[in-house]
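Morning run. Coffee first, then this:
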Amino acid sequence: MTDVATIDFHITARCDQACPYCWGPRRFRKTVDTETAHRIIARIKEMGARRVVFTGGDPLHRADAVDLIQYAKEIGLETALSTTGDRLTPALLSQVSPSLDLISLPLDGSSEEISSRTKHPGHFSAIMRSLDWLRDHPAVDVKACTPVTRHNLDDIPAIAHLVEDYSHTTHARVFYNIFQAFPRAMFSVDWEKLLVTDQEFASLKGQIADGTNIRISFLDHETLDKLYVMVFPDGSMVIPRGADYLNFGQFLEVENLDAALEASQFDSPKHMRHSREWAKKTK
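And here it is:
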């Protein structure tokens, strides 16, 4: 397999947040054990992917999250951790940073008040603390991510400014991804009250100057669709398409990934372009 660079491994559905736009897995009572998770990671490597993103839910709800990241790094994969930041600590970062290439943190507002419209109160402060601690680990790239909704549309330039300012206080590479909240979820959502229009999202590009020290990526609905290959907490392989979650059975039992990609209409060229945006620089 050469047309998939990154696979997202949702190692748990548990999370401290309840984001109204979340498209992650929900209510998975059964999750793979550590041994099976190792086999999945090894299979990701065998299939030719270069990178695994540990996500959820919040992957830090799993006691073996650091072990899984370390194992992925040991077998030669690039590693990323997508976490809400609620469970990050200086001790955990010190433990995992030698095996971590990138950490992704959600930033829903430039203040606690705006962030609390879609995150629990206190989340903004948790992210600011996490960013502070990450200065001690400059080898770990930092990616801030903002899903754009009706709750924070007017605040996006201020968030971008905050991320830009932070980038001048660290030696790490800093990325900023701005997402158009996508109408896909495993629970009931009143999308009409949440989603911004394509025109409103496109207008943000004109409001935000290119960062002098960060790479800003805008991901609209078209970009986000048919972009991800996922392994869910129960070990099943899922490729989202539109509002649907196409399930291809247990990842370890998938013999022909190319056939699954074709059946899902997965957009490999788009996926490869997106993956290159935060690839590690080679010396």
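The beta strands are 6-10, 51-55, 78-82, 102-106, 141-148, 174-180, 215-219, 230-231, 236-241, 244-250. Good start to the day.
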